[in-house]
Amino acid sequence: MKTLTIRRPDDWHLHLRDGAVLDAVLPHSSADFARAIIMPNLVPPVVTTADALAYRERIMAALPEGHDFTPLMTLYLTEQTEPDDVAAGVESGLIKALKLYPAGATTNSQSGVRDLTRVQPVLERMAELGIPLCIHGEVTDPAIDIFDREAAFIDQVLEPLRKRLPELKIVMEHVTTRDGVDYVRSAERNLAGTLTPHHLIINRNALLAGGIRPHYYCLPVAKREEHRLALREAATSGDRRLFLGTDSAPHLDPMKECACGCAGVFNSVNTLACVAHVFEDEGALDRLEAFTSLNGPAYYGLPANETRVTLVRHDTPLAYPKSVPTAEGAITVFDPMFPLHWAVEGSPVG
Ligand SMILES: NC(=O)N[C@@H](CC(=O)O)C(=O)O
Ligand SMILES: [Zn+2]
Ligand SMILES: [Zn+2]
């Protein structure tokens, strides 16, 4: 049996939601991850430091006994965000990033930013504070094809923003294209990118060929195979600018299996198994730790975790749950469409 011991991973992009869904999904993240950047796109969103403090308390209250997990809180950037509130949140140690959702780009982004010039004072203050801006990098212009929205965002928004404010630290979240990873890797400083397990595994055929499969629908939408291959090469390269952000984004099944299904893939149940599989396929298991446990903290200016986990490759495929029950209904788990052999030592599936 093959094993691999690495520093305990962190998740640099996670949706935990609230209430019954939070209760059901949090244990899957806190079992395997030491820390996670918690996305603020609740309804209503987490916009002030006081909102983030209250949300952090709800997360800690939902944490299973014995799990050691630190939520790294973020604020949802709006055109009303007060620079002083951001500074207070950052200086208290609570707020680790702000999140930019272009209004209308994705799930619960209605309160997002329409005009970036309106948030310039906040961005300048963030640059002074050294706190990252996490970005959902897609333009919302209906004239731009949905498969081109990430690449268009780089040209139309990200590059001009970085020129205007080179001191601002940016994370381009859930990069899904060759253009995206090339762009991140061309930056000398103040730019990094997260990659999801699912975008390393599926291309757009998974959601559209042979029937429409809503559980593979997320934003940014999965792209052509050439992009998936570029993401895998980049993730497994060890490049310090790239790290794991699962973008695990649970929605109750009826919200996905309907005429206008929500965007989001729920993967926290099998993230490490999927990612270990990808790295093994690419002959890059020696670079897994950089991706899951080292590059992220280094970029965020945090220490890497001191504790370790051992990943075990079992000879027979493991039975990961197909869905997770919540008090409000079931949530389907990401199916990578291949058998999973890896598990964290000591986990229930191992
Ligand atoms: N990724 C998604 O498809 N959905 C996310 C929002 C996001 O990260 O864009 C969600 O909150 O459901
Ligand atoms: Zn997003
Ligand atoms: Zn997300």
TrEMBL record:
Binding site for Zn(2+) 1: H13, H15, K99, D247
Residues recorded as bearing N6-carboxylysine in the entry: K99
Cofactor descriptive note: Binds 2 Zn(2+) ions per subunit.
Any single biological process term in GO: 'de novo' UMP biosynthetic process
GO cellular component: cytosol
Keywords: Hydrolase, Metal-binding, Pyrimidine biosynthesis, Zinc
Domain of life: Bacteria
InterPro entries listed in its UniProt record: Amidohydro-rel (IPR006680), DHOdimr (IPR004721), Dihydroorotase_CS (IPR002195), Metal_Hydrolase (IPR032466)
Pathway: Pyrimidine metabolism; UMP biosynthesis via de novo pathway; (S)-dihydroorotate from bicarbonate: step 3/3
TM region positions: none
Active site: D247
Residues engaged in binding Zn(2+) 2: K99, H136, H174
Keyword Cytoplasm attached: no
Cofactor: Zn(2+)
Residue stretches making up the Amidohydrolase-related domain: 11-303
CDD domains: DHOase (cd01294)
HAMAP family, per database record: PyrC_classII
Function summary: Catalyzes the reversible cyclization of carbamoyl aspartate to dihydroorotate.
Protein's UniProt name: Dihydroorotase
